[in-house]
Design a protein that fits this description.
The chain is of the alpha+beta class. It is built from six helices and nine strands; from the N terminus they run αβααβββββαβββαα. It has a single domain, classed as Jelly Rolls (Sandwich), CATH 2.60.120.620. The protein is globular, with a radius of gyration of 18 Å.
């Protein structure tokens, strides 16, 4: 297992073009973010049985410079993004290895969102004052090549701005189960191709889905890290204090408590998200 490291390279800022397409579609692809050494180190840990991205070399993906600029732009705001702490939080992580022939689970793999469109809350995507607030946000590190149409995550682009439910009997369902439009929605889903070491970032307000992995050339090997603003929490944190305490100081601030009135810039066992 590779030792965690503190990144010294500056964050790569989100471009105006990336902001335009993230706002338009609800997701963006950042190709070839990792170098060959990073790909091999993280991939080896995933294939060795890592369950999440909190330890070893996988931990270095949590605040990789290649994603920090984007996350700060869509999740943080002044004056909370400081030199000593991040202006957003990490609240969940899991690793998946899907061999050729892997089948998705029903109905959990139906197109779904964190909350349905008409339930406005801190998890939902919004834009105010020309500033994106992405809400619950997923970062997917693709450690093997992904080919379009062969099992990557799919998205109903633009659905993060939907104001009406998906046509099912339950207007508050978070997936399209039972919708008479299910076939048309599935037909409109978009996917991507990318080389190993690429990243997909999407708001969980966007309808998205897992798919059967039909790529015969390689498994799908991916790390799914979930982030949120300082103001909300969706997942119960699946990590212990001992693991967090071994991280570099600024990385630890990704897991500090949710309260913001006062000086909440340092992680501790008494100041951690649950």
């Amino acid at each position: 297992m590779i030792d965690p490291k503190e990144h010294t390279s500056p964050p790569i800022e989100m471009t105006d073009e990336q902001k335009f397409f993230f706002d338009l579609r609800g997701w963006i692809l950042l190709p070839e973010v990792l170098n060959e050494q990073e790909i091999e180190e993280t991939k080896n840990e995933a294939y060795a049985g890592a369950k999440n991205g909190y330890a070893g070399g996988l931990q270095n993906l949590l605040d990789h410079p290649g994603i920090l600029g984007v996350l700060s732009e869509i999740l943080s705001e002044e004056p909370f993004d400081l030199d000593e702490c991040y202006g957003f939080r990490c609240e969940n992580s899991f690793v998946t290895v899907r061999p050729p022939g892997w089948k998705k689970l029903q109905p959990t793999s139906l197109p779904h969102v964190a909350r349905p469109p008409q339930q406005a809350n801190a998890m939902r995507y919004q834009v105010a004052g020309k500033k994106i607030f992405s809400g619950l946000t997923r970062v997917v590190w693709e450690l093997e090549e992904v080919k379009a149409g062969e099992g990557g995550t799919t998205f109903l682009s633009g659905s993060h701005k939907a104001h009406f439910n998906y046509g099912g009997n339950d207007p508050y369902t978070a997936n399209i189960d039972g919708s008479p439009w299910e076939q048309n929605i599935n037909a409109a889903m978009e996917d991507y191709s990318c080389p190993a070491g690429s990243v997909v970032i999407f708001t969980e307000s966007l309808l998205h889905a897992a798919n059967d992995w039909t790529n015969s050339s390689n498994p799908r090997c991916a790390v799914f890290n979930c982030y949120n603003s300082l103001w909300a929490q969706w997942h119960r944190l699946n990590m212990d204090n001992e693991t967090i305490s071994k991280m570099p100081p600024k990385r630890r601030t990704l897991f500090r408590g949710l309260w913001q009135l006062g000086d909440n810039t340092v992680y501790s066992e008494d100041n951690r998200s649950l």
